[in-house]
Amino acid sequence: MGRRKIAEPFLLLLLVVSSVLQIRASDLLFYESFDEPFDGRWIASEKEDYKGIWQHSKSDGHEDYGLLVSEKARKYAIVKELDEPAILKDGTVVLQFEVRLQNGLECGGAYLKYLRPQEAGWVPKGFDNESPYSIMFGPDKCGSTNKVHFIFQHKNPKTGKYVEHHLKYPPSVPSDKLSHVYTAILKPDNELRILIDGEEKKKANFLSGDDFEPALTPPKTIPDPDDKKPADWDERAKIPDPDAVKPDDWDEDAPMEIEDEEAVKPEGWLDDEPEEIYDPEATKPEDWDDEEDGEWEPPKIDNPKCEILAGCGEWKRPMKRNPAYKGKWHAPLIDNPNYKGIWKPQNIDNPEYFELETPNFDPIAAIGIEIWTMQDGILFDNILITSDEKVAKSYREETWKPKYEVEKEKQKAEDAAAGFSDKISGFQKKIFNVLYKIADIPYLKAYKTEINNLIEKGETQPNVTIGVLVSILVVLLTVIFKILFGGSKPKASAAPTTGSKNDGATKVEDVKSSEEKEENEKEDEAGPRPRRSRRETSKVHFCRDLFLVVTVGPAWGSNDMASCYWARQRGLSCHWRRQITSDPFIDCPQLSVLQDRLFPFTMVGRKMGASFLLLLIASSLVQIWATDPLFYDSFDEPFEGRWVVTEKEDYKGIWKHAKSEGHEDYGLLVSEQAKKYAIVKELDEPAILKDGTVVLQFEVRLQNGLECGGAYLKYLRPQEAGWTAKGFDNESPYSIMFGPDKCGSTNKVHFILQHKNPKTGKYVEHHLKYPPSVPSDKLSHVYTAILKPDNELIILIDGEEKKKANFFSGDDFEPALVPPKTIPDPDDKKPEDWDERAKIPDPDAVKPDDWDEDAPMEIVDEEAVKPEGWLDDEPEEIDDPEATKPEDWDDEEDGEWEAPKIDNPKCEEAPGCGEWKKPLKRNPAYKGKWHAPLIDNPNYKGIWKPQEIDNPEYFELEKPDFEPIAAIGIEIWTMQDGILFDNILIATDEKVAESYRLEAWKPKYESEKEKQKAEEAASASSDGLSGIQKQVFDVLYKIADIPFLEPYKIKIIDVIEKAEKQPNLTIGILVSILVVVVTVIFRVLFGGKKPKAPAAPVNNAGAAESEVPENSEEKEESEKEEASAPQESEKEEASAPRPRRSRRET
């Protein structure tokens, strides 16, 4: 028993000592829990752009505090300087923090920036997106961006420039509203591991080009920028067979659809009734201004008479598929005998190449959060830097895990409560899908539009609709039940007379029934063309006869072909009917005018003119026919009825038909900030992308700039059965997505294509690598994508080539269109004894005896003396005496009001206030942690890679198998309003696209550019003054950095910062001082040369005698002062107080 009593204290002591040593070894480099208010420790940026307010707030449902993003649609910036920089070169380093997206994250960032040491003169209040960092890590989500960033800035030792290296294929951001913890582990063997909630999501190697873009080590060789492709180099693997001949029975001119000549107008069709009428219940809005908004017209509604009867308006025969249609003939492809492969320039030595064994990370001097976000409610917590993975894990278990479990249970309860509602919603969706399939039954084709209209109306009241359907079903089942089981009852016999009468009735009914059946079948065959409203664009029917009568939509009634062509170019309907004329100059006054101007003299001249003009017009029409666009919309007319706005709940942005600022030209306008928008236009006929050149072009004007949002188009492929334009959203599959997108680190003109893998049947998204950037001004810009038949893609901005790529090149698209033949074996594991470390610490090295690892970097300056006049009892800050409590302040909601703090004016006159502490100075004995020198690793085997196996998803392809474009959609999330889309075009000829640029875009652009130049010229004098001010203050800050002014640097900077608020007054004072100084110097240099009047000898001598001793005394005294000045300066520097720190400063 006695031995046990003695042993227990020793065991406990050993346990405590080992624990203390373990804690000592795994000490934190930095930790912030935000349990206490952050003011004074974290500094909010005072840059003008960053207006977001940070708050110290509880996490929803917890008593735990964090750092809260409190307002929507704001820029935020805050920074915390570390007491000692965290070194990233030695050993393992773990970066970890928590984020809870309490209101979700539609568009914004929630990442941290680990700042490297900043340049001299930088202050935390000046933290912004230009402040350089070592690492940026954390979630970011907006538009097509959804990733947990890991980006590091690394210095190229050859050029001295910092290069940004992005982690490839980073993990996605969790989509819920729970707390999540993000961990980045940097290992000494160059390995990076990304964890989310403690689970590994990504492993990478810093030196691997497969993991980072661009690779940390530049390539040894680069393509020679001066090498050009030879003119005779042929990259086409396949070419059309030159010996192939089009079959004689192949009619390229046969239209896809023809009028059904057997169709008959249904009985009851109302020719004189309009399809739409003004809404009789509509009233003019109270805020409608006729001057600004134009004359008010009530909105149109479907004519109720037309819904009851067969239809209204002019009846036209429906179209049916032409059995003779074969489309354009193409010669079959054969192997190109001149094929030389994809041309690449020769490689030359890379002048920026360097070798590296491990990344040369800059130390972390501060941690900053600098984000632009659409959401509020983002809560940061438990920010940690440590050198031990176990420490990071223990913090996850203790601080994050309990909160996460509580939130997860709460979410499960909410999901369970909403489960019944979700099931009902799913049941409703299935029923309406069945109804849409019924509408697709072939024999209901003639009435499909009416049926779809009824179903769409039914969808607005799903419960009522399903109730009616159930009632009908019950009635039908009752009738069937009665027929099946009710008729077995024996009937009473009837008189023969009655029976014969009944038989006669039956015969009459049978005859009548057969007649009705024939009539119904006839009507089915001649089903009416679906009723078209004025909001719909009818198909354009072309006719190559020379003289035509033009009938154009409700807005057009012109009879000349020039007007019709003009209308077609602007997306209006134009139906051309054949009409042969004897004398075109009589029937067409426009041609008559041309005739009189061209051939005004003789009758012979008139006849020659007619023939010449006919040839001219014929050749023009042939050219127009050959180069007509597949689709064009100028938005000159309102878009309603042609473009369909989605009715999905998330898309609340309102589209408007509006003029471009400063022009009479209309476009499609994004009218509100911070909204989701979706609108779609279904094409009359799908645009085929496989044959020949295809040009996609549209204009966008960012009238209010673009901080965060997209302005791209989606070219949709044919959708699944049951899809309607009103259901268009970000899930609607597309062939191509093209256009500008900008938010945070994203600034690119996207070109993304979705391509079907023929092996798996899955669609894969292929992104253009290194796309061009978005122009940063507010002018109209036109974006053009040219898809060539030789697999080449050309991106133009404003008609200027910005990017050229090849669809089959892995250097141009990511992932490559054709998958690799082999892939790393996913089952192959790295052997445990595989050593990837090129260098290892020298095992024989020994730490020198005089190396003190525990010596601190800075020590207290014991020789320092408190300055005279230091006010110990005065606080550094006081309540602002002029501040008043805001009228809308609510003590219950906002807490007890406190006046804001201001600097104590007494402290500005004195050397300082508050408790004086001796300043710190650098410890001469400090050497830091000792590390053994690195030597070559004798067991080094290189970077391990798994063995390659055949790729089951590999396929070969000669041309991309693009899906046709069935519709054009705009589906964006944007922070800005004022985005104006215009002149959307799909064509098969580059010249057509160029002509539209020159005619539709160029005049507007030139006008806007001239206006911009005039505005810049008007503000040139102001801008020049602003530039001078900036240069003056830059000089003043450099003066503050002069070494002998170091003790007064903080005060000097404070004075300069105050002066910056009144730059004109400050510069005026400086100029006045400069004038006085120059005047004094001038007087000293030139003022003494003037001859003096002679004076009495006595006075002169006396003066001379009296001046000499005085001058000598002054000289001796000045020499004494100069000799003692350095000593005084050193003494003052030694006794200089630690710079006064306010509660807002770290």
From TrEMBL:
Residues 223-248, 504-515, 824-849, 898-909, 1117-1135 have a biased composition (Basic and acidic residues). Keywords: Calcium, Chaperone, Disulfide bond, Endoplasmic reticulum, Glycoprotein, Lectin, Membrane, Metal-binding, Repeat, Signal, Transmembrane, Transmembrane helix. GO terms for cellular component: endoplasmic reticulum membrane. The chain crosses the membrane at residues 464-485, 608-626, 1065-1086. PROSITE patterns: CALRETICULIN_1, CALRETICULIN_2, CALRETICULIN_REPEAT. Its main location: endoplasmic reticulum. One of its GO terms (biological process) is protein folding. This is Calnexin. Calcium-binding protein that interacts with newly synthesized monoglucosylated glycoproteins in the endoplasmic reticulum. It may act in assisting protein assembly and/or in the retention within the ER of unassembled protein subunits. It seems to play a major role in the quality control apparatus of the ER by the retention of incorrectly folded proteins. Disulfide bonds join 107-142. GO terms for molecular function: calcium ion binding; carbohydrate binding; unfolded protein binding. It comes from the Eukaryota. Residues 287-296, 850-862, 870-881, 888-897, 1107-1116 have a biased composition (Acidic residues). It is a single-pass type I membrane protein. Residues 1-25 form the signal peptide.
